[in-house]
Write a structure and sequence with these properties.
With about 270 residues, the chain is mainly beta. It has two domains: about 1-20 and about 185-270, Immunoglobulin-like; about 20-180, Jelly Rolls, CATH 2.60.120. It has one helix at about 1-15, and strands spanning about 20, 40, 50, 70, 80-90, 95-105, 115-120, 120-125, 140-150, 150-160, 170-180, 185-190, 195-200, 205-225, 230-245, 255-260, 265-270.
Length: about 270
């Protein structure tokens, strides 16, 4: 019901938006077997996991919700895990890939890898040695520019290869989205978290649509590419509301909108033109 209400609200009040989030079930909350993702794992059948998979001693858990992808995790030898989704883009535009990433436990040998590809092109390639504090033992939100994404069919692949020797590596990915922007800027559709963020560059405003299951006091920050907070706003007792922030004083460029609910923080990318 939550997703239905949000869809109706979006269609009724934000019809000017010319952008799309192309992926289905980016939070993996539909579980396995998945109708959105093609899953495979050498030893486990699928990299999609919930609490039934265990916690690898504690750090293996979703960033949000109950489901996520857990790559590696096999000590008995080689393990290859893959999650693939083929999706359609209706209108070409600037693309952005975003997901939560965590190396929960590292083999520390450099032999284990986590690779993300779009249409066969490598977007991200990391090994078990890439254990910077930002994403070792905790999730980090990673964002990658995809350039111009053409209209038509595309394939996103999450691919991992681990050796299990001398130790186990656990790569975790959650909350995957591909945002393709049109003439009115980028829109992030986050149906899992009940948040829609849109930069309406025609009317010089940032539109925020919330549809939560509980009320929250929100602190909103708009951060530029240099990490400077350029705008803030506070909203109290938010449940199902739509708000607008004026962007006429902001320079053209890429910004991050940070929505702090107190219990969790969500970041969304927008382009101001």
């Amino acid at each position: 019901m939550k997703r239905t209400l949000l869809a109706i609200l979006f269609m009724g009040s934000l019809t000017f938006i010319n952008a799309q989030n192309a992926l289905t079930d980016g939070g993996f909350e539909a579980g396995t077997p998945s109708s959105a993702w093609v899953e495979s794992s050498t030893n486990f059948g699928t990299p999609l996991c919930d609490a039934a998979c265990g916690t690898c001693g504690g750090p293996c858990a979703p960033a949000n919700g109950s489901w996520y992808t857990w790559f590696g995790g096999f000590a008995g030898g080689a393990e290859v895990g893959v999650a693939t989704q083929t999706f359609n883009v209706a209108t070409a535009g600037a693309g952005s890939l975003e997901f939560n990433y965590n190396i929960a436990i590292s083999n520390a040998s450099g032999t284990d890898s986590m690779i993300v590809r779009l249409d066969g092109n490598v977007i991200m390639s990391k090994t078990d040695l890439d254990t910077a504090a930002n994403y070792y033992g905790t999730y980090d939100l990673l964002t990658f520019s995809l350039g111009t994404v053409s209209a038509g069919s595309h394939t996103l692949q999450l691919y991992s290869s681990t050796t299990g020797s001398p130790a186990v590596t656990n790569f975790l990915i959650d909350d995957v989205s591909i945002t393709v922007g049109g003439s009115s800027g980028f829109t992030n559709y986050d149906f899992e978290n009940g948040i829609v963020v849109n930069a309406d560059n025609i009317n010089n405003q940032l539109n925020l649509v919330f549809n939560f299951g509980n009320t929250y006091d929100l602190n909103i920050s708009v951060v530029d590419m240099m990490g400077k907070v350029v705008a803030t706003e506070k909203y109290s007792s938010v449940l199902n509301e739509t708000y607008s922030m004026n962007t006429s004083d902001l320079s053209a460029g890429l910004y991050t909108v940070v929505i702090d609910k107190g219990t969790e923080r969500t970041s969304k990318k927008v382009v101001i033109e």
